[in-house]
Amino acid sequence: MGTSPTKSLETFENPHPERDYTIRMEIPEFTCLCPRTGQPDFATIHLAYVPDRLCVELKSLKLYIWSFRDEGAFHEAVTNQIRDDLVAAMQPRYLQVIGEFKVRGGIYTSVIAEHRAEGWQAPDPVRLP
User: What is the tens place of the pLDDT at every residue in 114-129?
Assistant: First the structure.
């Protein structure tokens, strides 16, 4: 695996495919360019997924996220692109991508994109006394 930005996402076998569990990641240094002005946009990307057979490898995810740095993209488009690429690479049972974009023109933007595998249902939450 190199050390340059890439759109390639690597995966590895889920060590516990027999159970549902959640993997959460926070990526506080996401940047892309405004497609209208060319100015940088900054965001924190939050990922949460329930893997099926595969998990995403972290260094490849870092290089993938880095690949957006010099690209123009609307917040809605880039958040959904990340969702689509992760689903294509892993085919998770569930995936949520939240893009929390920093203020631009006095407006904060949050974009939430989700995926649910056909037939998968979230387990009931545990309610402790």
Answer: 999 999 998 888 899 9
Residue 41: active-site member: yes
Q: Is-catalytic flag, 32?
A: no
Q: Confirm whether 97 is domain-assigned.
A: yes
The residue from 34, 52, 84, 85 that is catalytic is: 34
Beta bridge partners of 83: none
- The answer to whether residue 25 sits within a structural domain is yes
How many separate domains does the chain show?
Answer: 1
Residues 6+ apart with CB under 8 A from 37: none
CATH for 33: 3.30.1130.10
Residue 3 token pair: 């050390």
pTM beyond 0.70: the answer is yes
**Which is more confidently placed, 96 or 3?**
96
